[in-house]
Design brief:
mainly alpha, elongated
Length: about 60
């Protein structure tokens, strides 16, 4: 027997699948390079390091 899914849940899933906004973890290597370059160019005495990537997230370039 298939359980019914609430209408709001179906609509939420549909909208999430249609979303084209890239999330920060999808931007990958390009974003990390831009942040690193900005930090290197800064005339600040304090150095900021980037946090490690979350487990399971890779910096593979995507098309």
């Amino acid at each position: 027997m298939k359980k019914k899914t609430a209408r709001w849940m179906r609509n939420t899933i549909k909208e999430a699948e249609a979303c084209t906004t890239k999330m920060p973890w999808e931007r990958g290597a390009r974003r990390q390079e831009m942040i690193a370059r900005r930090l290197e160019d800064a005339d600040s005495s304090a150095k900021v390091t980037l946090p490690p990537m979350p487990k399971g997230v890779f910096l593979a370039a995507s098309a």
